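The data layer described in this paper is built around a simple, fixed record for each protein. We quote a single record here, exactly as it is kept in our systems:
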Amino acid sequence: MNTAFLDPQSTAGDFHRTLSVRDVTTGEPYDLASVTAIAFSLRLSGHEQLRASLATGEITIDGDPVTGRIAISLPVSRLRHLRSGAYSVGVALSDGSETVQLLLGTLPIVEGHPHELA
């Protein structure tokens, strides 16, 4: 498992992050070919505020599964309701027989200024 402090995210913009998943023992990219579920969650004061997954399509395997990269993409419509603060973030995956916590960390959310885009 890795710990991370992610760059701040505005509530007025889309969230896009690509994460490289590595085997903690060997340091090699984690082969995602057998992964059946990946989940991403944001918590504030112990309460889940947002969840994304492979099932919702907001998490995808980025390219060839053997490279160990996942992409998380959330539209601004999913972020607008979040209050400013330091959110706990977690990412986990499962291959159907084992669940692995990939990341625990902090994601600062800041109130953005919405714009009318033509």
Remarks:
- The chain has one domain: 2-110.
- Helices lie at 76-79.
- The mean pLDDT is 90.
- Residues 2-110 form a domain with the Immunoglobulin-like fold (CATH 2.60.40.10).
